[in-house]
Design a protein that fits this description.
Chain B: It comes from Streptomyces carpinensis. The complex is a heterodimer. Chain A is mainly α. In chain A, about 85% of the residues lie in helices and about 0% in strands. Classes of the chains: A mainly alpha, B mainly alpha.
Chain lengths: ~120, ~160
């Protein structure tokens, strides 16, 4: 059952990442990887909300597995984030490489904190 | 062995498609459908593998999230090897990269758990562990992808000499 929930969440999360990345990149003609940045920050916000909801007793561990481990886990990625950073650095865009790392970590953490606070305000 | 140097796989599959035209929208789905499907299958495999790792190596609340760190670092090392092989060595089918890199590795690694684990450590009264985890994952992931790509490129060049 638990495995199935993780699998179901990931089956939606991974293609959602791919489609969002494509849609975002099409609108931004820049070397900055806005697509991966978008899915990572969005995933951090959702997982923050969810973890706050679980802590407040408003969401079960099954929801956590489906939406947290499955959906948010597959929606966000560390491998593409670091690969795109490496490619920026190797292509001579060192500023963008550093900006990608700093912006992703700051925005991702910020989104996680906002998500948890929002969940506390809603359900605690 | 062929050596395709073009980064075809990085390009949009159909850059000239105008989605406002119904006929082209259908064509776009015909091109995108298989990619979306293999990304979904790969992502499911990667995410269940990550869940399995979290069951085999559980981390106590307030402890250093070693399992997620290793999962992310391993995924970054593999993507470093894979992208060099698929761009410089292996003229693979067009679905191999979305299946393996976008699907499996993307589903296996996670940014959301990384951020929320740091938040939990900070809020739970372990800010130093949180900060150490933040920096250690970044260093491990970036070092892994760089080392893996550089080493693979060297080995490919050495074999092709």
């Amino acid at each position: 059952m638990n495995w199935l929930l993780v699998a179901l969440g990931a089956m939606v999360g991974a293609p959602l990442r791919y489609l969002t990345d494509r849609a975002v990149q099409k609108r931004h003609d820049t070397v900055f990887p806005w697509g991966t940045f978008t899915v990572n920050v969005a995933g951090c916000l959702i997982l923050g909300l969810l973890s706050g909801a679980v802590a407040a007793g408003a969401a079960s561990s099954h929801v956590q597995l489906l939406l947290g481990t499955g959906l948010c886990g597959a929606l966000t990625t560390y491998s593409t984030f670091s690969y795109e950073t490496l490619r920026l650095a190797e292509d001579g865009a060192r500023f963008f490489a550093a900006a990608n790392v700093i912006a992703s970590v700051v925005a991702g953490l910020g989104a996680a904190f906002v998500g948890v606070s929002l969940a506390e305000a809603l359900w605690a | 062995m062929t050596a395709p140097n073009t980064r075809v796989t990085d390009e949009p599959t159909a850059p000239d498609v105008d989605l406002h035209l119904p006929s082209q929208r259908r064509q776009s789905w015909r091109a995108q459908g298989p990619i979306v499907a293999v990304v979904a299958i790969g992502g499911t495999i990667g995410a269940t593998a990550r869940y399995g790792a979290s069951l085999v190596w559980p981390v106590a609340a307030g402890g250093f999230p070693w399992t997620t760190l290793w999962v992310n670092a391993a995924g970054c090392a593999v993507i470093g090897v894979f992208t060099v092989l698929i761009t410089d060595v292996w003229a693979a089918h067009r679905l191999v990269r979305p299946f393996f890199a976008t699907g499996i590795l993307g589903g296996f690694t996670t940014f959301s758990t990384y951020a929320v684990d740091i938040q939990k450590l900070v809020q739970g009264g372990h800010p130093r562990t949180g900060l150490a985890y933040l920096a250690a994952t970044l260093c491990a992931a970036l070092a892994a992808v760089w080392l893996a790509a550089t080493t693979t490129r060297r080995m490919v060049a050495w074999r092709q000499r």
